[in-house]
Amino acid sequence: MLPSAQEVLDALTSGALVVESGTIRYANPILLEWVGSTRLEGQPLGTALRIPARTNCLLCQGKTAQCLPVHTATILTAHGEEIQVKVKHSQLPSGQNLLVLDLFSEDAALTQAHTDFVSTVSHEFRTPLTSIKGFADTLLQYGGKLSEEQQRRFISIIKDQADRLIRLVENLLSVSRIGAGRLEMSYRPVPLLKLVDKVVQSIKIKGVGDREFEIEMNPSLPPVWADADRLEQVLLNLVDNAAKYSHPGSTIKVAGRLAPDAEDQVCIDVVDQGIGIPPEHLEEIFTKFYRIDSPLTQQVEGTGLGLYIVRSLTQAMGGDITVESTPERGTAFTLRFQAATAELQAAHRRKLYAEDTGS
Ligand code: ADP
Predict the structure, then answer these.
(1) What gap in Å lies between CA 130 and CA 35, rounded to an integer?
(2) Inter-residue contact 100 to 9 (CB < 8 Å)
(3) Regions of the chain with pLDDT less than 70
(4) In the Cβ-directed half-sphere of 357, how many Cα atoms lie within 13 Å?
(5) Which residues line ligand 1 (CB under 6 A)?
(6) Cα–Cα distance between 291 and 273 in angstroms, integer?
(7) How far is the CA of 238 from the centre of ligand 1 (A)?
(8) How far is CA 76 from the centre of its chain?
(9) What is the pTM of this model?
(10) In this structure, which residue's CA is closest to atom 25 in ligand 1?
(11) Residue 307 needs a FRET pair 20 to 30 A away by CA distance; which of 128, 291, 300, 336 works?
(12) Considering only CA atoms, which residue is closest to atom 7 of ligand 1?
């Protein structure tokens, strides 16, 4: 004779909940043990589980357009400790929801992050490689029959795609250096106008379609105290994003100004008139591999590493980044760095001297 459904759920080593219209109808012993409760029946699902706000389908019962499967949630234990769980969700024939919960161990999280990483990176490598191989094969096979103009066009596509691979490798190397805490900075006063000009030119050469660029910078603005190569990488990522996530014909502005509340600090704004970022994503966009799950974002090439690198490098240089955005109107990222004051430079020279002489 088969055991009853409840006997099966009672014997599970995973947590299990049956939920109906957002109310818990059954909780198995292991789940009760995790939350340190003897009874959860009749209570709202939120009493046992905290589900990330943007994936609340189990609470809405699939009735809203944003209904999404829930993959992770947090449980608050009897001791006030938060534990992460992986959630598997199935709809029962009765219309109730069955949730099976497994502890999200660090090992599992690392394996998952590793799998996500390998699949994102393989995809990002494959696209340009396929294109490079395709155009190189065509040139080899039919090169003699193509016009000079066509040959040049194919070679320039190969070069663009190779540049894309180089950017990807550079970003991955930065991520691994940041992760290993191996970021060596070489500080010096960096004149902004020259650097911003260089960044805008290289984005234009890369080809971003029909975008206007506007640089607004007072020539008397003091230089910034930073590592020039890292600051260039930060600005390249921000200006590249501004171009990627905005519409043809729109303007991208890069402005340098003194911080309104501190004379020894410089702000750099990168402002676009693009698709914007909904408020609930404004913090998460700075985390590794995070891309907004919307058709507008997904149709643009990207790995979700750019802003993670931008914020990590900015903070490593003692700076700060903030963002303001209105969906469908545009986004403004503001960087803030120390100006290269005479005092800062003198202190740096003293430090180097002390390191050299061991004093
Ligand atoms: P990606 O490689 O996807 O561009 P980033 O880390 O640079 O990765 O950005 C993370 C996500 O933040 C992007 O996928 C996009 O959804 C959003 N985003 C970044 N910059 C902008 C912007 N200027 N306008 C609108 N969305 C942006």
Answers:
(1) 51
(2) no
(3) 51-71, 106-114, 116, 359
(4) 6
(5) 237, 241-242, 245, 272, 274-277, 285, 290-292, 297, 302-308, 331
(6) 19
(7) 9
(8) 27
(9) 0.66
(10) 276
(11) 128
(12) 306
Looking at ligand 1, which residue's alpha carbon is closest to its atom 8?
304
- 276: alpha, beta or left? (left if phi > 0; alpha if psi -120 to 50): left
> Which two three-digit tokens encode residue 250?
């729109």
Q: By C-alpha distance, which of 358, 359, 356, 318 is closest to 339? A: 318
Between β-strands 82-91 and 265-272, what pairing exists: parallel, antiparallel or unpaired?
unpaired
pLDDT at 68: 42
Are residues 155 and 136 in contact, defined by beta-carbon separation less than 8 angstroms?
no
Q: What CA–CA distance (Å, rounded) separates 6 from 11?
A: 9
Contacts for 269 with CB less than 8 Å, ≥ 6 apart = 253, 254, 255, 257, 332, 333, 334, 335
Amino acid at the residue 17: L
Beta-bridge partners for 44: 23
The per-residue pLDDT for range 225-247, each reduced to its tens digit, is: 999 999 999 999 999 999 999 99
How many Å is the Cα radius of gyration of the chain?
26
